């Protein structure tokens, strides 16, 4: 059920995105002949008075179709309400509406979480919890004597503080201390003692000790005091997610070799969503908001096939005074389809192979 919940979240976000395009077109009176969720062979379809609604085999997105180049359409090619015959501004609104819909929907998801589930309030204590030691015989943490559920409260006698900043401080210390012993002050079962751990270089050359880290404490939720509070809380969380997303995108672009492994495909996203659904279903709102914002940002990138790429075509048309030749646009778009489809297949295979259940099967 948790997997189905995560898939449902992704499906809703795809529908919201495509509804943005669809609604922007219909409100302006632009002809639309298809509304599809997914790509590939049709699994189900319904023919309305003007629009064919369908669900297709590969749920990696969706599309809104226009009859502009449909050889079977009865609409004359000079109809002013064909997409290609509308002014640049009208077409830009339709193309960008999917991204705008995702951004708006993300905000209301966060507001719904605050209003229905409650407003998150971290209750962190000093130190960093070690929820798990990596299962390796030569793990520096294991060799040093660290155990799961230990709390690290200081490194080299410097107090770490609490929350996410404490984790970042410890991570930086570890990464910058390759083969250089660190003195950790550890709390276990009410007792405090010191351990010496020596980080070993990872594949990226940075220090690692083989542990997972989490804040020492928990996040509780309280019901809002008034009807305004969920919206102000949502605005703060929205801003935080946007900032983190752009930071991650910047890191990926500036340091692609080290950051590429962190790019997640649909399988990994569903796996994360399933874990969230099984442990804390109320956090699915935040999960959906995070994915919706990422979906919007990715789609606005100036790459072929994506909405951002179509906007680039419009900008070039505005500069030239006429559209790029159809053969040029088709060639660029087809190349983009091949590249993105290849990337999607690679991510699906990689993320599937990394699933715990798959790794256990082949052990």
Explain what the structure shows.
By secondary structure, this protein is an alpha+beta fold. Among the domains are: 2-30 and 86-113 and 290-362, no CATH class; 121-221, Pdz3 Domain (Roll), CATH 2.30.42.10. The protein has helices at residues 2-27, 88-117, 140-144, 164-175, 229-254, 256-259, 266-279, 284-299, 307-320, 326-354, 356-362; strands spanning 34-47, 52-65, 119-133, 150-155, 158-159, 182-188, 191-197, 200-201, 207-208, 211-222. A hairpin with a 2-residue loop joins strand 6 (182-188) and strand 7. It starts with a helix and ends with a helix. Mean pLDDT is 82; it is low at 355-363.
Topology:
Blueprint: H1 2-27, E1 34-47, E2 52-65, H2 88-117, E3 119-133, H3 140-144, E4 150-155, E5 158-159, H4 164-175, E6 182-188, E7 191-197, E8 200-201, E9 207-208, E10 211-222, H5 229-254, H6 256-259, H7 266-279, H8 284-299, H9 307-320, H10 326-354, H11 356-362
Antiparallel strand pairs: 1-2, 3-4, 3-10, 4-5, 4-6, 6-7, 8-9
Helix pairs in contact: 1-2, 1-7, 1-8, 2-5, 2-8, 2-9, 5-8
Structural class call reads alpha+beta
Q: Provide mean pLDDT, rounded.
A: 82
Distance between the termini: 26 Å
How many strands appear in the DSSP assignment? 10
Compressed to H and E, one letter per element, the order equals: HEEHEHEEHEEEEEHHHHHHH
Strand content: 15-25%
Radius of gyration: 25 Å
Task: Enumerate how many helices there are, as a single number.
Answer: 11
Query: Which consecutive residue ranges, at least 5 long each, have pLDDT under 50?
Result: 355-363
